[in-house]
Amino acid sequence: MKLFASSAPKPAPDAARPDVQQQQFTVAGPSGGKLWVDRAYRLGELLMVVGWTTAELELELRSESGPLAARRVAVARQDVASHFGRSEGEGLGFVLVAQADAAQAAAVALGWELRRGGSAGRSRPLRFGTELPTTEGELAALGPALGLLALTQEAHSPAWVDLIARAPLSAQACRSARGFLEGAAACDTTQDGIVVGWVVHTPGTVVWLEDETGRSHPLTHAFRRFRQDVHDAVGQEFGHASRDAGFIVRARGLKGGSKVRLKAVDETGIHVLSETSCSTLPLDPVGAARWLFAVGTPLADMHRRVPQVDEPVLGPLIAHRQSVWDELPLEGRVLGQLPAEPAVSVIVPLYGRIDFVEHQLIEFSRDPWFQQQAELIYVIDDPKLLDSFPALAESLHRLYRLPMRWVWGSVNRGFSGANNLGVRVARAPRLLFLNSDAFPQQPGWIPPLLDVLDTHPRIGAVGPRLTFADGSIQHAGMEFMRREELGVWVNHHPFMGLDPVLDPHAGLTRLPAITGACLALRRVDFERIGGWDTGYLIGDFEDSDLCLKLRALGLDIAYLPAVQLTHLERQSFKLLGQDEFRTRVVLYNAVRHQTRWAGLIDQPVAPAPLDA
Fold it and tell me: Which residues does the annotated region (Disordered) include (predicted)?
């Protein structure tokens, strides 16, 4: 990179050749004065000559082939001023900066000429050191030229960081970069911060964030996007550089209430482009997600943003929330006499509403097999239900005489966490997970599902057909569908809304995935895969994640249309046209899901009949 343009050569001064690095040189002429070179550095093709003069001199660097294109940076030298009894040292120091190849740098001398006429001269060849300055005195003598020196180092390397920390801010306006910080938030518990803003700069200029401790945070890994407002404002000045001006970046180590700066370094030194204060990011993952997702990003770009910004921040918050789950006390009760050795544990999470429980118990109580062989477990996953459900369970048990257990784990754990908690208290070798709004349409619905597990060791999970209240299909297996306009794979129910007579699957069928609204599997396989994954935000994709875990073990996922339940779930999560926050939650989970299962989710699994 050429830092300087060539200047017209000057005739070599015809003067004695003093060693200005060895002793102070007295300049001959009307005004006189002293000249001294403290140190000379050669770093690659960059030459830096540091010194001071009390004379009014024009200075240059000359090689044997002529003068070099050099830039002079003025430095305040109070030490020189004090020595010579001056009140201030402004402008007494100088740094000459030039580029030179090995041949030019072999014999470079300092030349000078009095500004108001008089003597001119040239020194003996200077002796250049090849190591960066390290002492306080050497660094202070460089002054604003430290920014130029920093540009010779790899950005954010230890040497660069040290130089940037010591360099003073430039008094000149920055012409090579523009930027603004629009907001920042940090979580003190996880030490994660998010900074939002925009910045544009010319090639060769380095921009970064800096916190109150002086730590630098590069923008090289920031999520960048086009900002029409920024492009309209500075596009004419910065051209193509303004195309991806907007940024959202994760910065480790920020704290709520602290300051963060957007800085730039160019040939004129170091500049502060903008500054903002960090708000406190909520420790609750949902609250933090609301803050993050409020930062405007087109839906079509969320699949790029989530891995760079959102998941690295929300993932640790989710893990932190869950880190105490195993230590929390459990509350619960067994009503009636559960089977001593149940064939299956039926686990039903409860959240938000409990009015469907009675409808389930009505159907269960009409099923002799269920009464004799099933262990029914309701998992309360909503603290608002604690005041009402225990009394309701007592009342319903007296009415329908169906044994049951309920358990509460002290906190809301979400769908996956509630299911895992149910397994902790379950005793059967086979597990059946059931939504509270799913109801069997006839007695004896569980044995056919368990028979599939008993007779097909290669099947890891099996689920029935689910219909809406109007009798149309809600679930006849799931597949993965690519939404190209959003850049994500989503779960798709291909036959939703059709009459069951149009279901193409006549018998037990291998499919890519099934819903978790009613899913049966062996406990041993459940434990092999580590249970339900609790890393998704709020919900979505947990059931397909469970299926993919089983498929990763070489097991099949099966659909059994001979068993049918009614499911009152809303018809689908539509990615577009819903609440903006909910839409972004779905996209967040979709990106996490496809990242976890890259290479498996995009492999087609053709429906295949399995032997009954």
Answer: 1-21
